[in-house]
Amino acid sequence: MLVTGDADERAHKSNCERALTLLYQQHNCVITMNMADKVDINQSQPFPALSISNLEESILEDHDEGLYFDQNTVPFDFNGQVLIWMIYLE
Q1: What is the pTM of this model?
Q2: How is residue 9 annotated by DSSP?
Q3: Closest of 66, 84, 68 to residue 36, by C-alpha
Q4: Is the dihedral of CA 51, 31, 65, 27 positive or negative?
Q5: What confidence tens digit (pLDDT) does each residue in 12-59 have?
Q6: What distance in Å separates the CA atoms of residue 18 and residue 11, rounded to the nearest whole number?
Q7: Beta strands, E only, 1-90
């Protein structure tokens, strides 16, 4: 458990708790989960549902177009270009 008085560090910790990272070669895929029981400290600047970065070229692309990940989402595979995931339906 991390306890800090720095507001920026608390926001970073809160967002990291809700993120899942998949790596393929130099490509990094970060999925931000929307958790119903977590309060978003960074409400003024929400993170995109999906970000893909090329670590060799320092390029980051955010993807928000209709994507939503929550605790019912299970990512399976990422090949540097395509993310495959499953959603449990109620």
Answers
A1: 0.67
A2: H
A3: 68
A4: positive
A5: 555 566 788 888 999 998 888 876 655 555 554 567 788 899 989 888
A6: 11
A7: 19-24, 27-32, 50-54, 59-63, 73-78, 83-87
